[in-house]
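Continuing the series of single-chain predictions for the mutant panel. This is the parent chain; the variants come on the following pages.
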Amino acid sequence: MTFTVTYKPYQLFPEASQEGEGKYEWYKRAKYDESEDKMQMYMALMSAYGRGEGIEYKFGGTVANTLHAHRTIQHFQALKGPEVADQLVDSLYRQYFEEEQHPSSVETLVAAAMEAGIDEKEARAFVEDEDEGLADVKMAVREQCGNGIDSVPYIVLEGKRRDITLIGCKESDEYRRALAQIAKESQ
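Parent structure:
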C-alpha cells in the first residue's frame, strides 16, 4: 500500500508578525504565564520527546508568522510533487526547531527549497515575490479554521471506510498504528 502525504496550510498563531519575537520569551509569556519553572518543565519534556525521535530541540530563535512558509510549501508541492514537499517541510522543521532559524524568512525558505532539490534562482524568485500564491494560501487557511485545530501537526489519514485524525505531536508508534489501521480497513 502506498501513502501520499499532502500538506495543507494552517496557522496556529496568524496574529504573529512577520518579524516575530524571541521564541523563548514568547513561549514563556504566551503559554506559561511568565513562569520560569513551567518553561523549564516544558523544555525538559520537549527535549526528552525530541531525543527519542532524534531531534535536538533548541528554544532560541524567533516565533513569527508562518504564512509565507505555507505559501512556499503549497507552491512547490503543486509544482514538484509530494517528495519535494516532504523534503521542504523536513528542512523547515529542522531549521526552526533545531537550528533556531526564523520560520519564514527569505533565507530560511530558500535554504529549505534548495535542500529539497529546487534551483536557488527558481526558489528565490518565488519566495521573494510575496504575492504569488498568497490569495490561494489565505483561502486554504480559512477553510481549515472551522476544524477545531488547536495544535499541529493536524493529520487526516483518508481510508476507504473511514478517516483517522491525529492532532498534535504523537509518538511514532501512534502514527504507525493509525497507518496500519487504514491499510487493514482498505484491503
